[in-house]
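WARN no homologs supplied; continuing
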Amino acid sequence: MYSWKTIRTACAVLLLLPIVHLAYLVSQDMLKTMRVAPETWANEVAAYAEEDRATQLPVHPVLVVGGRPATLWQGLDDLLSPRPVLMRGLSEATVSDITHYHGELVGYYQPSALVLLPGNSEFHIRDNKSAQELATAIRKLIELDESFGAERDYYIFTPLKTPLYPEDYARIDEASRLLERWARETPRVSILDANALLSLAGGTPSPDFFRLDGVNLNESGYLRLSLLLMERMEQQEATL
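OK structure emitted
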């Protein structure tokens, strides 16, 4: 017979095992995210390729790429119907990571329109870009796509201001100005700044549109992004 103390200790260990396992998985995911090399996302890109082989892909879809914000974006296909929509977000990937995997994430799908939603990882976790560096990274992605003779519309969201990182606001404003200036000289590129739609009267981000983490949008926040994109796409299509 085992003593009550031994049984209690064994039960406590068994109860802690899932927590320890979860902590291990979280730490592994964080270590992966902290690695700057774009090969960090090779497994996620491979998973998309496997999924593509098992499904009927839409023809010339509206393709959404980006980091965490693109991964969490839901419901866009309903609003943009009958246009087919394909979401290809990569965890905490940066624009430079997306550029590295351009062939797999963009070129392969031959989209009618490319939507880019940069994530918070441009300024935190994986990188610490200046406004100029982010604008340059976005321009390089579009220029790479155009170099293959692509003829499609580009919808670029400016970085989103979040309640958690007020120190980023000035950098985001500058990046938005640089992107707007570039787009005025670049046909078929539209810059979408959703920050005004997600802000309080004073211009700071409203917590009502963000999850409790103060970084990621909630359903109401994504709905505003979706409506802004839909409106801009309809305006663009009306001019063709």
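The first strand starts at residue 62 and ends at 66.
OK
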